[in-house]
Amino acid sequence: MPDGLPATIAHRYSREVALRHELLYGRGYQGPAEPEVFDALAARAGLRAGADVLDVGSGLGGDAFRLATRFGVRVVGLDASPDMTDLARERREVDAPGADVELVCGNVLTSDVVRPGAFDVVWTRDAGAFLAHDEKPVAWRLLHDALRPGGTVLVTDYCLGTSDASAEFGQRMLAWGQHMLTLDAYADLLTSCGFTDVVTEDRTADLVASQEHGLRVLEERGDDVRALLSPEEHADLTRRWRTKLTHSTSGELVWMVLTARR
Question: I want to staple 85 with a disulfide (CB 3.0 to 4.6 A). Which of 9, 65, 105, 190 is the partner?
Answer without folding.
Answer: 105
